[in-house]
Amino acid sequence: MSRQNEQLPQPRILMYSQDGFGLGHMRRTTSIANQIASDRSDAAILTMADSRLGQYFESSQNHDYLKLPSILKVGPGDWRAVSLPLAFDQVHAMRRELIRGTVISYRPDVLLVDHMPHGAMGELLPTLDAIRQSGMSTKVVLGLRDILDSPEIVSKRWRAEGAYEAIERYYDMVLVYGKQEVFDLAAQYDFSPRMRERMRYTGYVCTPQTARYTARARAKYIPSADKETKLIVAMAGGGADAYPMMKALLEALPAIQARQRCVLALVTGPFMPKELRHDLEARAKGLPARVSMEVSDTISYIEAADLVVAMCGYNTTMEILRTGRRALLIPRVGPSAEQRMRARLFAEQGWVDMLSPDDLGSDLVADAVLASLRQGPLMNPCVKPDLHGLQHAAAELLGLLPATETPILDLSRKKRVPLAA
Fold it and tell me: Which residues pair with 199 in a beta bridge?
């Protein structure tokens, strides 16, 4: 490396992701980190996260993880440690100090906070105070998925927990990984005029992964010469609460098979309890169905399917939308209204088909699956979803980095699609 490059400041980005029992937040955070690393090869990126699968996803060379002790929200304002046999207060204090110490020593140019403006139970507030009091030039950015929960729940909880105040006081920018025309997050969640001035709607964030073996994935279930049998792929991200949907599909499969020859591939996800996965395997015996905990390339399985049946978590839904395949979404029952809201809004756009989780009787599930299969393997919406959110989000974050005299990458050659206001 030349002396000139040695003297250049190394841009540093720090990400905070709280995702104690799932894959969604970590998948999105890792995708953004990889995009930034691709656009700025000199950037150092560190993610603080408590997901037990922090490095489950392939990461870029300049990206590393700091694992926080895992905690899990079991009710409003009620948290517990996942693995350590310690009181929550002790674990929470440990996390608070780890986060603060990391930020002070790492001195990031940009801090991207995922989902929680004040952190789990306010654990970010000492760090945000330290950034301001120390005179650090760190730009603090909040990243929000398209829909958080019902407006009533979010507004009540955020006021009680001081989240609105934290955004007003500490944040330089708010990125919304969605489209304002589909769900106006600022209006729905009663953001103040000052907060709205800092907001950027990026479009939907999709992982950049492309299908690697679509034909081979289909051939695992249906011979290539068989043009009549339909492949139904069911998946649900981490799968912690996917059992009711997958059990309902297995119970409906004989009725589906009676009218349309098909094979059902169930991908449970790594977080489905082992005893529930074994129950699905037992139910699948004697049926044209196969149960897998995970697959190496979910995009290939989605593209191989005649119909994808899935829950309506953010990342799973975006992977489906990117392929354009026919999808029947069955949102989770609760406790959050997020998935129900997303499924309804996306169905109104013509992007997906939807079945209520209250309608999981065998006949209703069979009718919904057959109706979707009859429409063909591709969705044909009038308005296509904006799936450029990954590139837009990375560009916004890179725009906050200090300018360098010697650019590492000629970004002028990259086409940038205008953001929504």
Answer: 174
| Number of other CB atoms surrounding residue 347 within 10 Å | 17
Element housing 306 (H / E): none
The two three-digit tokens of residue 135, written as one number: 């005179």
Instruction: Tell me the pTM.
Output: 0.89
| Cα separation values, 42 from 225, 406, 408, 409, Å | 49, 11, 7, 9
Which structure tokens are listed for 118? 């004040």
> 362-374 vs 243-259: helix axis angle to the nearest 10?
60
Amino acid at 307: L
Q: DSSP strand E in 186-279: where? A: 199-201, 230-235, 262-267
Q: How far apart are CA 242 and CA 276, in angstroms?
A: 10
- From the list 149, 205, 204, 139, the residue with the least C-alpha distance to 174 is 139
By three-state DSSP, how is residue 348 classified? Answer: helix
| Residue 343 CB coordination number (10 Å) | 27
Q: Which helix (H) or strand (E) holds 38?
A: helix 24-39
In whole angstroms, what is the distance from residue 253 CA to residue 287 CA? Answer: 8
Lookup: tokens for 17: 């992701």
Task: Summarize pLDDT for 191-202 with one digit per residue, the tens.
Answer: 999 999 999 999
Q: Hey, is 7 helix, strand or coil?
A: helix
C-beta of residue 398 within 8 angstroms of C-beta of residue 408? no
Query: Cα separation of 370 and 355, whole Å?
Result: 12
Q: Which domains does the chain have, with CATH numbers?
A: 8-206+387-413 (3.40.50.2000), 214-374 (3.40.50.2000)
> Do residues 360 and 244 lie in contact, with contact meaning Cβ atoms separated by under 8 Å?
yes
161-192 tens-digit pLDDT:
899 999 999 999 999 999 999 999 999 999 99
